[in-house]
Design goal:
Layout: H1 11-24, H2 29-44, H3 54-63, E1 74-79, E2 82-90, H4 92-110, E3 114-120, H5 127-134, E4 140-143, E5 164-169, E6 178-183
Parallel strand pairs: 2-3
Antiparallel strand pairs: 1-2, 4-5, 5-6
Length: 190
């Protein structure tokens, strides 16, 4: 297949389209930027079902009124080294970013911290969250539970989560960060 059959766009253009789509759905500018950041990262990493493909997962929830693009996640409980964020039916892009930012803030003063989230929708590529910690010179680990998406060997019904797992760590100056971003089930990426 010749290259002229493929159309390419600059990353900033694609991010702008995603942001505009989210703004038109009623999301705040911050929410739209969070979605565009994680979706474009996933596509750059070749994780298309966690990138632009994840938008297909959110659309039916939005149409059914289950996702609230206008909702703002809120910290509902916290301690010196932990945070609990209520998503209020927002996307995971929005909710998990709030939790990771708060967790990074707490880890800066306590050495280690944990952020927990609830009541949110899909979050796409979890490297988008662990890398937030790496950018602050910290190790970041991000994971999530999912509905039953995988069948055990010999089973006939989905019974296991297909949770993502991501770890990002800083490296010496000039070297790219360490990023491990994996699926725990074959169904997760397709």
């Amino acid at each position: 297949m010749s290259q002229e059959r493929f159309h390419t766009e600059k990353l900033g253009f694609v991010r702008g389209l995603i942001e505009r789509m989210w703004l038109n759905a009623g999301a705040s500018r911050t929410h739209a930027e969070r979605v565009a950041r994680v979706v474009t990262l996933a596509d750059l990493l070749g994780k298309h079902q966690q990138g632009i493909g994840v938008l297909e997962v959110l659309y039916p929830g939005w149409v059914a009124g289950e996702i609230d693009f206008e909702a703002e996640p809120e910290v509902i409980d916290e301690g010196p080294a932990w945070t609990l964020v209520e998503g209020n039916r927002s996307t995971g892009f929005n909710t998990i970013t709030v939790a990771m930012e708060k967790t990074i803030e707490k880890a800066a003063s306590s050495g280690v911290a944990v952020g927990l989230c609830r009541n949110h929708w899909d979050a796409g590529c979890f490297g988008g969250y662990s890398l937030l910690a790496e950018q602050q010179g910290m190790v970041g680990i991000a994971t999530n539970t999912t509905p039953p998406m995988s069948t055990p060997i010999g089973g006939i019904t989905n019974a296991m989560s297909a949770a993502p797992l991501s770890l990002a760590a800083p490296t010496p100056a000039g070297a790219p960060p360490v990023l491990v971003d994996v699926k725990t089930s074959e169904t997760y990426e397709g």
